[in-house]
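Action item from last meeting closed. Structure (200 res):
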């Protein structure tokens, strides 16, 4: 079974693309969702995050995402320290998850697979792209935040021109019909590369 990375900058539409692969029967591991779950469920990780960011990191037993975002997205060193705690936990969880899947290939959806070096542990990389203006528009509509805040978050991710040479496949995500055609083509190529599904 092949393990494929699916990444893209904020607002590129990687979750939309992941949904298209899921419709084709591909198991999807969403790293952001997993990270939130692990940050709430793993006592040791909770303790490390609280030590790093303070007791306001959790509110009523739940992750205080607004507070954490306000701290780390204005402090690159703090963001790096948080990622150093969370990313190994996500990597371990993904490994355990992928071992029980029975499919020709699985997708790991994550925003910064290139930036954190996670792509080196995967068999192929898919990059989703979109014009910056469109990405800002999408995120502003989705998160009800300002363009300035969105661009601040973008600064913590590599620009697309740095990621494109590292990607095995690039999916420009502007026209959904064309995106779906590209997803279908890549899916067929990956099926040919990966061979039959692992036996149950």
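Sequence:
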């Amino acid at each position: 079974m092949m393990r494929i990375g699916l990444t893209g900058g904020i607002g590129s539409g990687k979750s939309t693309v992941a949904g298209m692969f899921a419709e084709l029967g591909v198991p999807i591991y969403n790293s952001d969702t997993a990270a939130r779950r692990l940050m709430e469920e793993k006592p040791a990780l909770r303790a490390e995050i609280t030590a790093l960011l303070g007791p306001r990191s959790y509110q009523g037993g739940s992750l205080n995402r607004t507070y954490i975002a306000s701290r780390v997205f204005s402090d690159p060193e703090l963001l790096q320290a948080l990622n150093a705690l969370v990313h190994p936990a996500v990597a371990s969880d993904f490994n355990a998850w992928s071992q029980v899947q029975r499919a020709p290939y699985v997708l790991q959806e994550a925003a910064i697979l290139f930036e954190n070096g996670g792509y080196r542990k995967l068999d192929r990389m898919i990059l989703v792209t979109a014009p910056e203006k469109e990405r800002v528009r999408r995120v502003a509509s989705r998160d009800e935040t300002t363009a300035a805040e969105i661009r601040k978050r973008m600064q913590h991710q590599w620009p697309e021109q740095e990621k494109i040479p590292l990607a095995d496949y690039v999916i420009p995500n502007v026209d959904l019909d064309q995106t779906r055609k590209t997803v279908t083509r890549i899916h067929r190529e990956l099926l040919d590369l990966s061979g039959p599904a692992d036996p149950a």
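Note appended to the action item: Residues 177 and 183 are 10 Å apart (CA to CA).
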